[in-house]
Write a structure and sequence with these properties.
Structural class: alpha/beta
Order of helices and strands: EEHEHEHEHEHHEHHHHHEEEEE
Shape: rod-shaped
Strand order of the largest sheet: 1-3-2-4-5-6
Helix content: 40-55%
Radius of gyration: 67 Å
Oligomer: single chain
Number of strands: 12
Distance between the termini: 57 Å
Largest sheet: 6 strands, mixed
Length: 522
């Protein structure tokens, strides 16, 4: 709603010395304060911001009173527009007491009035003197239509201040535009980065490895632990070699004892074979003598002959008695021979048993088996049995010890080989070489490794994904998995490291690096 305030009963409205525009929710308060000064000012009232904009562009105003007490109105937008009108305007803000300090800091605001507005303050700002309200029947003569318009003269200082304020307002407008444009570019670039990290699989995070880095220290510890384990393995190999030498010596001694026992067994077998032969022949002879004696003493042959010869007086009594006595002695000798034959047969059986035991003993020692299958022996062979058993047991123990030592030594040799290869691999890795000099690597998340194969070119960008240039190529991949944090989203990710050869060392300080091609092809 727009209205022009004028005195009642005026037939002709004079041209005002200065024009004032009030923009606010209600004009009753300002109308009551300025009703006595109509004629010296030309004041227009607007309650809508768009209408105020149109009014400011259609006419030139000296003062714009902006009422900020109603926060629902968009009157705050008028302040930037005043700077773009092209003619000097004096903005006056009516503000609640709590916001006065805020508007005092706004560039371009001439004065700030605290609500409620006092008449003296408003008149002082407009350059008016306080006048009494005219009587209702007083009528001022209308101004002459051809009277010249008297304009307020502006001093040089005021003109300079107005020009400075106009320049400041124009700069403020342009700076605001530049800031808005920069914010738009920043938000657009931020959205582009989000899309890039969601869709791209050709980026990695560069790292510079030097002495003191966590991964370098970890590899150094692993190398130290591997070397300590290698030294322990070498010491155990030396111990195993000594144990093997001792077991081999024990085996040689046990074999010598077994050889000695085997020789003794062999001699015993030969001796018992000879004894068996002698006993067999003796038994045969005794059996022949026994057969002859049995013929002599058995039946009635010799006794009847002696009795017949004695009756015929062919022999005397002495011869008869002597012959009879010889027959008795022959019977006694026959009995002794039978006993001797029984004893010889018993000895022959014992010899056969001992021969069987010694033969099994000899076979067991030759085959290198234990003595569990050896038959029982007589008491005279117990010392030999004990000696042979101890020799065989010592030999088998030495063999078992040598087998165990050789198996343990083979395991240690394999462990030494593995540790040696592990140490060589660690010492030749980039993490180990970083102890002596700077090494550049790139953390490649799983899924991006196809773009970081050995020999692939690397590109670094001045603004993450734009203004990119080639800075090197991909080298050897490093073994193992690495956990890191996404450079943009901040969430944990897994991946691996690859060594890189950079021609521009500053590229290692960038947040990301691109493999195989530029992200936006420029």
């Amino acid at each position: 709603m727009s209205q022009v305030l004028s005195l009642k009963n005026h037939s002709v409205q004079r041209k005002a010395a200065q024009r004032v525009l009030y923009v606010g929710p209600s004009s009753d308060e300002i109308c009551n304060l300025l009703v006595n000064h109509i004629g010296r000012i030309d004041i227009a009232y607007e309650t809508e911001v768009q209408a105020a904009f149109a009014h400011l562009r259609s006419r030139q105003f000296d003062v714009v009173i902006i009422d900020q007490r109603d926060e629902n109105l968009a009157t705050r937008l008028i302040l930037p527009v005043l700077q773009a009108l092209g003619y000097p305007v004096k903005p006056v803000v009516i503000s609640p007491l709590t916001d006065v300090g805020h508007y005092l800091n706004v560039p371009g605001v001439a004065r700030v009035l605290a609500a409620p507005v006092k008449e003296t303050q408003l008149l002082r700002i407009l350059g008016l003197e306080r006048r009494t309200r005219p009587a209702e029947n007083t009528v001022k003569p209308p101004p002459e239509q051809n009277a010249p318009v008297q304009r307020k003269k502006i001093g040089p200082l005021a003109a300079l201040i107005n020009r400075c304020m106009s320049t400041i307002s124009m700069l403020y407008k342009r700076v605001a535009f530049v800031l808005l444009f920069a914010l738009f570019i920043a938000f657009a670039f931020y959205g582009l980065l989000i899309a890039f990290f969601l869709l791209s699989s050709g980026w990695g995070a560069p790292l510079t490895l030097t002495r003191g880095h966590e991964m370098v220290n970890r590899v150094e510890r692993e190398i130290t632990e591997a070397k300590v384990a290698l030294n322990l393995t070498d010491q155990r190999l030396v111990d195993e070699d000594l144990a093997k030498s001792s077991a081999e010596q024990e085996l040689r001694d046990a074999k010598a004892l077994v050889k000695y026992a085997a020789g003794t067994v062999k001699k015993e077998i030969q001796s018992r074979n000879r004894q068996s032969k002698v006993l067999t022949q003796s038994i045969k002879r005794l059996r022949k003598v026994k057969a002859q004696l049995e013929k002599q003493v058995s039946g009635a042959g010799p006794s009847a002959d002696l009795e017949r010869l004695y009756q015929k007086r062919l022999i005397d009594r002495t011869s008869y008695s002597a012959s009879t006595l010889n027959l008795i002695e022959a019977g006694q000798r026959l009995a002794a021979i039978e006993i001797e034959i029984d004893q010889s047969e018993g000895q022959l059986e014992e010899l056969a048993m001992s021969q069987e035991m010694l033969a099994s003993f000899d076979v067991a020692m030759k085959k290198g088996e234990g003595l569990s299958g050896v038959t029982a022996a007589s008491s005279d062979l117990l010392p030999l049995t004990n000696q042979a058993s101890q020799a065989v047991a010592a030999r088998e123990m030495a063999k078992s010890k040598i087998t165990s030592v050789e198996a343990s030594r083979a395991t240690l040799v394999k462990s030494k080989s593995v540790l040696t290869d592990q140490i060589a691999t660690l010492e030749n890795s980039a993490l180990a070489r970083a102890r002596e000099k700077r090494i550049d690597v790139v953390f490649v998340p799983y899924g991006n490794d196809n773009k970081f194969r050995q020999g692939a070119p690397l590109y670094s960008c001045m603004f993450t994904i734009i203004l990119c240039s080639k800075v090197g190529e991909v080298g050897q991949p490093l073994p193992g998995e690495i956990n890191s944090v996404h450079p943009f989203f901040g969430k944990p990710i897994r991946g691996s490291l690859v060594e890189v050869k950079l021609t521009a060392p500053d590229a290692a300080m960038r947040e990301i690096i691109h493999g195989n091609y530029k992200p936006l092809l420029f």
